[in-house]
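Q: I'm building a small set of examples for a reading group on sequence design. Run inverse folding on the following structure and report the sequence directly after it, with nothing in between.
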């Protein structure tokens, strides 16, 4: 029975691509009768996954063996392998372990774009804002080209394109700014009262977890699992890198987009969904994690109508101080 469940799961996973950590059925196979039968199994498999995570059912073979991935796939190694091929242009090969179906996890492409920008443009002040558009599929060998838009006394703007085999995949606009004296130093985002990582529930494990999530430890502090018919649209997730990773704004961006869209737990069956844009505002120029590499990520859906959903995204770090405030626009097909 377990062997059959695993084979059905693999077949189900073959129907989907990923965007924002969410499974998406490709149009070319959507009308197949066998595919429809497998899609109908999705809610059952999700419940099986939840039982596996609680240790109440099947053993670990259903969960991906994240520790078996080579160290060469780790985020620090990817940064080391980012090579300058000409002034202002960098190239890197993205391993399959960072995949979201037929593309690459958006947090990684954004982080690589920022790293290439910081290497190409000298004397940049701290990053204050990133505006990212996920335009096409990324994967394999990609070329990253930053362009200086404007450099003033306090602010510098740069645009960075990440181009893959099929063309432009990601375009990011970065705003860097020096600190200045201000009459204000206050936050209006109260710290949530939630379980610490050690006490939170398991999250994003099992056969339906997107491939790239093998690089992260994740715990659900509050909210629901994707495609579980949850009543929740506001989710809090503890996340950190599995492999030792130096703390930086670049590595924080690589982790910050890990949660699936906040509306996804409201789904009762799998339907296509895709992240369109991502805005990230840095609230601290030297953010530090809560402890032991853990960050608390909040994702809150504001609405879902006419095939789109808008959501807020907050990240808390040391002493549960907010370090990132973001927004994301998501296309949904349900």
């Amino acid at each position: 029975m377990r062997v059959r469940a695993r084979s059905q799961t693999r077949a189900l996973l073959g129907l989907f691509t990923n965007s924002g950590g969410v499974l998406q059925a490709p149009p070319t196979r959507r009308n197949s009768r066998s595919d429809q039968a497998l899609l109908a199994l999705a809610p059952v498999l999700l419940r099986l996954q939840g039982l596996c995570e609680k240790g109440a059912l099947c053993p670990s073979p259903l969960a991906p063996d994240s520790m078996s991935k080579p160290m060469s796939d780790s985020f620090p190694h990817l940064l080391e392998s980012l090579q300058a091929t000409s002034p202002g242009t960098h190239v890197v090969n993205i391993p399959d372990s960072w995949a979201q179906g037929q593309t690459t996890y958006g947090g990684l492409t954004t982080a690589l774009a920022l790293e290439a920008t910081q290497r190409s443009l000298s004397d940049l002040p701290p990053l204050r804002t990133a505006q990212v558009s996920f335009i096409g599929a990324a994967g394999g060998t990609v070329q990253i080209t930053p362009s200086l838009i404007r450099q003033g006394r306090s602010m510098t703007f740069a645009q960075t394109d990440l181009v893959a085999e099929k063309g432009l995949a990601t375009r990011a606009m970065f705003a860097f700014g020096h600190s200045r004296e201000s009459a204000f130093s206050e936050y209006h985002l109260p710290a949530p009262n939630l379980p610490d990582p050690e006490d939170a529930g398991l999250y994003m494990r099992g056969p339906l977890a997107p491939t790239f999530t093998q690089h992260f430890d994740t715990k659900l502090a509050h909210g629901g699992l994707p495609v579980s018919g949850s009543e929740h649209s506001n989710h809090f997730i503890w996340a950190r890198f599995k492999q030792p990773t130096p703390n930086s704004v670049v590595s924080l961006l690589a982790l910050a987009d890990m949660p699936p869209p906040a509306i996804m737990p409201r789904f009762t069956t799998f339907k296509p969904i895709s992240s369109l844009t991502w805005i990230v505002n840095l609230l601290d120029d030297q953010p530090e994690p809560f402890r032991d590499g853990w960050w608390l990520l909040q994702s809150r859906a504001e609405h879902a109508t006419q095939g789109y959903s808008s959501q807020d995204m907050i990240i808390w770090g040391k002493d549960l101080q907010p370090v990132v405030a973001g927004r994301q626009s998501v296309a949904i097909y349900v």
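Residues 7 and 299 are 32 Å apart (CA to CA).
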